[in-house]
Protein: E3 SUMO-protein ligase NSE2
Amino acid sequence: MTQNTQMIEELDDCFLRTAGNIMKYYDNEEEKQNILKQLREVLIANCMESARIKAANEIKEHLECMSEFDSEEDVKNITIEYKKAISEIQVNPLQDNRLLEYDRQFKGLYQVNESNALDDIDADLRLTGSEINVIDPISKMRMTDPVRNAVCGHIYDKASLVAMLQKNKNTRCPVVGCTSLDYIDLSQCRSDIVTKTYLENHLA
Structure:
């Protein structure tokens, strides 16, 4: 995982934690919804800017590989081409994986913090009886630092997962019935704020 990727993931976690705190501590429903809307708009703007920067870097690298800078005229032409390519970058933040993941976990946070659960919440975030599943599928113990596998969506305790991968890095998801054939990649397992918030609100 690159430093930039880690920073983005930490930023996204901050957005989710902020959303959770707003849900938990704001009593005025109208004010709460307005602030949550503004928070999502800030995330959308950040997703757009990140996507533009990524696209710009890809264009720059491509042009550098394709071009030779033998004269001042070459530099001028490549600069014109670069500016033109930058101006044509199209970004759709509503399809950004960061925003999609935020929306998914936002629904889970809403369920954890509000008494009226959303009807369209993901099946794996629904309450089983009255609780979210907090048992780690690896250790069979209560989780303390839940992480979600981005490939299959299953959640494990981070310490148990790290210990398992240290023994055998070529390990598939241990959840019974999981259809993923990919080996677990720790870099694709991110903190699951929904489960973590539930654990914090429902101490053992």
User: Anything to note?
Assistant: The first strand starts at residue 146 and ends at 149. Residues 115-130 have pLDDT under 50 and may be disordered.
